[in-house]
Amino acid sequence: MKVLIATAIAMSVVSGHAANESSPTADSQVLVLNTQVKRETTEPAGKGSATEELPGGLAHSKSSGPDRPTTMGSKSSLLCLTPPMGWNSWNAFEKDINEEKIEAVADAMVSSGMRDAGYEYLVLDDAWMAKERDSEGRLQADPNKFPRGMKAIGDYIHSKGLKFGIYEDRGKWTCQQLPGSFEHERIDMLTFAAWGVDYIKMDSCFAESNGRMSSEDYRMYRKFIEETGRPIVLSISDFGNAAWAWGGSESAQLWRTSGDIYPWMDSIYHCADTSAGDQAIHPAFNGLWQFAGPGHWNDPDMLQVGNLKDIAADRRLTGDRAHFSLWCILAAPLMAGNDLRSMSPAVREVLTAPEVIAVDQDPRGIQGYKVYAKDGHEVYNKPLADGTTAVLLLNKRPETTDLTVRWADIGLTGAQPVRDLWARKDLGTFTDSFTARGLGQHDHQMLRIGNPGPPLPAPRPMALEKYTITRKGTTYLSDLYYIWKAHNAPRYDASFAGDPIKIGERVYEKGLGCQGKSAFMFKLNGKADHFRARVALDASSKSKGRFRVYNEDFFANKLLWDSEEMTNPANAIDVDVDLSGVQCLMLVFESKDALGNWADARVIRDGDR
Fold this sequence. Notes:
Elements: H1 7-10, E1 51-53, E2 58-61, H2 74-77, E3 85-88, H3 90-93, H4 99-111, H5 114-117, E4 121-124, H6 150-159, E5 163-169, H7 185-195, E6 199-203, H8 214-228, E7 233-236, H9 243-246, E8 254-256, H10 265-276, E9 297-299, H11 316-329, E10 334-336, H12 345-351, H13 354-360, E11 369-374, E12 377-383, E13 389-395, E14 401-406, E15 415-420, E16 425-431, E17 433-439, E18 444-449, E19 458-459, E20 473-476, E21 484-487, E22 491-492, E23 501-503, E24 506-508, E25 511-515, E26 518-523, E27 530-537, E28 545-551, E29 558-562, E30 573-578, E31 584-591, E32 595-605
Parallel strand pairs: 3-4, 3-10, 4-5, 5-6, 6-7, 7-8, 8-9
Antiparallel strand pairs: 1-2, 2-19, 11-12, 12-13, 13-18, 14-17, 15-16, 15-18, 20-32, 21-26, 22-25, 23-24, 25-32, 26-31, 27-30, 27-32, 28-29, 28-31
Helix pairs in contact: 7-8, 10-11, 11-12, 11-13
């Protein structure tokens, strides 16, 4: 949704592709493993990792992966074992929702076949509530929009065989400046449970004023949800501020990876790339799919299928299919956002395509990953539970092209059957590769390849020591992959311009170079005691800049150190920050166009932990 974002929050919204990214080690193309491969292992818990090498950099994993399993209660941990499917009111109606519209949408979810295709949650977004709470501090429905109240709306939704979803905000106000949940967390969860709510989208506008960590906020909501005894899905809506890093899976079933999605293809591709590419994480991870799996999903935001505006009318169906194919290959939540009351048959066929939806809902729960990406030409792979694999070949560019998937890149060999999932027909048997020919802009093929049998391998997990603190002593941050970034990514062991890091007469071999706005996070897991660095504007800089160190994300507003405004490249400041209890360390450089250097940026672990 369109949000009112304070300056601190605005910094956290990703804006465009990063420049001059570099990796700390040679294996920057390593692929990582979905955390739920433990479903396939026969090794006892706690045994450590073992892998069997396979073609294309793949491996059978005998570990549970790097992410901790969910610690939610038994009811909640069984929710969303496949990505949630439903409809959300914002993209179609924004603030203009009422009882009549919502009931008509519920009717349309049934009559259109959406419900039977798997769409079960009907979610009311912002602007459903009255401007004031009642005399006992409870939320109440806007009496003009919902005169019968929210319990009646929930009952109607349930009567259609659907589940009831609702919106709130963890700040004092919602994004539309209606009552937020801050300091009313317990009573709001009790109220929602009494109304029969099954799904909560919890937004983050104004949450930087809460005085709490994001991880603390969402743990609180999970605790109060559990106290109600009602199994309720919790969706983290925080504009993609690193919930996968700071423990979103401990509290919620899904979390946003992106800013808000809009009804044009560039926005759709950008949001997809926060989950599947390097918009939100170091490119070595090849996307965020290491952090997704049954019960916890990356969410690149709601669907805009049926809403596209920036594409010729005769190409909108192609754009809709490309959008839907991307969300399904990425095991993304499928929250439709079009007006179901007036949906065309063509849009309905996209949203209810059974074989494409089956890829999204595959019980193995692996998020698809790129096996090829160059100049807007992309090939994704998603190993499925039945031993076959789903592949998406996509051309984002205006020029017509051919795209090939090679069996060696997806764990197959020899002759394999290929099925087109949109056409719902078998294409034949192909040896060693398949080529989609003559793909125009947004054209694609969504395929299922192989024969049923034992599950194909998933990629190896990223080794913990490459992105977390695993040893005592000093660890230079440029020897770790950052786990989240916004705006310009840092340059490793060089200034942003690619020159040696130099402050005064000293040249530093280690450090991080930045330009303009640059924010990035490293995962410490509470295993570092100090952060030390020497910061200065680069000698080439003609404008001012500012360095800051935070505990966790922007919403936490936990500033650990601030250089304040620096104007003279000749001046430098030594940084020494106590990291006691810090799980995620965020470094921020902010300037209009100056270059800034974090020389010798490092963390130190003193104790035997």
